[in-house]
UniProtKB/TrEMBL annotation:
TPR repeats lie at residues 30-63, 133-166. InterPro entries: CellSynth/LPSAsmb/PSIAsmb (IPR051012), TPR-like_helical_dom_sf (IPR011990), TPR_rpt (IPR019734). The keyword Ligase does not apply. Keywords: Repeat, TPR repeat. SUPFAM superfamilies: TPR-like (SSF48452). SMART domains: TPR. This is Uncharacterized protein. It comes from the Bacteria. The keyword Repeat applies.
């Protein structure tokens, strides 16, 4: 016959098993409601999503996962104050979703017109989590919004340093450099973005900005005077001035019968910058005919000029330039040009469809280099 203590032990074990099963049942029900809510959110049925989340919270009142999904849904619903409320709950819980919660809170503050407060929040959080690219990217968005382009540039460089595959950082960096009048770095960033994301609506606009800058800004005035606009200051102050000069003069030679004169101007300017220079630039006589050939010729010229030897130790010469300069010398340059222009060019899109193996080889090459 079992003693009282033995009976009590058996009862407690049974009770524990019962409550574990009961708790697991609650967790399963809450997870089911959560998944249904996420499905409604993805379908932009935000009110239905919130109802599911509220039902799930009744089963697990302090779930940071549910709180995060509610914060995200309220943000997408443009109820920014409530989004901050639920973001704070996630932040206090110190759960795995804490970074995402900070992003929602910072973005909500910005949307409420509290951009400086949002900047202060992101700057503080980045000190704790410097290896999170989304924090750097969202800080850059705020800097860009208030016209702090140099700070936006630095934040985007940090984001790319953490995650080189983050397409939005390359895209935004392209626009920031464009707004700063820095044509060459702008084109580098747009090229890399288009390699990563060639077929979206954003790609169409990015390609337009890229091609516009590739085509140059050289004008012919009265008495055959040539005006060449070089962004970012004089040649001496602009680390990309010589490259931009070559690009502009080459474009001018294609539309004006001034080949000899342009070669002389170009070589004179390059000698001013480098008195030891002995190599002369010669402008090719043969001009490409089709839109695709023109774009490839311009791209090859641009990439060929990105020789990063003895240049500054920054993202332009350490990350972008080596990739593009080596790509120009490879067998994949034609594929690259078709790949990044497919959203804006039907012929390029068709070429990509018919040359999937070449595209795959390009991607493998980029990954290795």
């Amino acid at each position: 016959m079992k003693s009282f203590s033995q009976k009590l032990f058996i009862f407690l074990v049974f009770l524990g098993v019962y409550f574990i099963g009961f708790s697991n049942s609650f967790a399963q029900d809450a997870n089911q409601l959560l998944q249904e809510g996420i499905a409604f959110h993805d379908a932009r049925k935000y009110d239905k999503a919130l109802k599911k989340y509220e039902q799930a919270l009744k089963l697990i009142p302090n779930s940071p996962v549910i709180h995060y999904e509610m914060a995200l849904t309220y943000f997408d619903k443009k109820n920014y104050k409530t989004a901050i409320k639920y973001s704070d709950k996630v932040i206090k819980s110190k759960s795995q979703s804490i970074i995402s919660a900070y992003v929602i809170k910072g973005s909500s503050l910005d949307m409420l017109g509290k951009t400086q407060k949002s900047i202060k929040l992101f700057e503080g959080v980045i000190k704790k989590y410097p290896e999170n690219y989304l924090l750097h990217y969202n800080l850059a968005l705020n800097y860009y919004k208030i016209g702090e382009l140099k700070k936006a540039e630095q934040s985007l460089m940090s984001a790319i340093g953490v995650n080189p595959e983050h397409t939005s950082s390359h895209l935004m960096l392209g626009y920031v450099e464009f707004d700063m009048g820095r044509k060459i770095p702008s084109m580098m960033a747009f090229n890399y973005f288009l390699f990563l994301e060639p077929t979206s609506q954003r790609s169409d606009r990015a390609f337009e900005f890229l091609n516009k800058q590739l085509l140059g800004s050289t004008k012919k005035g009265e008495n055959n005077e040539i005006t060449i606009n070089i962004g970012g200051g004089s040649l001496g102050d602009n680390e990309f001035g010589a490259i931009e000069l070559v690009m502009s003069i080459t474009q001018a030679s294609k539309s004006m019968d001034l080949k000899k004169e342009l070669e002389e101007v170009l070589n004179e300017e390059l000698e001013k910058e480098d008195s030891q220079r002995t190599e002369k630039v010669v402008i090719m006589d043969e001009t490409p005919k089709t839109e695709e050939e023109i774009f490839e010729a311009n791209t090859k010229l641009f990439f060929s000029l990105l020789d990063g030897k003895d240049k500054n130790n920054n993202i332009w010469w350490v990350f972008y330039a080596p990739t593009f300069n080596t790509l120009e010398e490879s067998e994949h340059i034609t594929t690259f040009c078709y790949w990044i222009s497919q959203q804006s060019n039907e012929n390029a899109s068709k070429w990509v469809e018919e040359n999937s193996e070449k595209v795959l080889e390009l991607k493998k090459w980029i990954a290795k280099n």
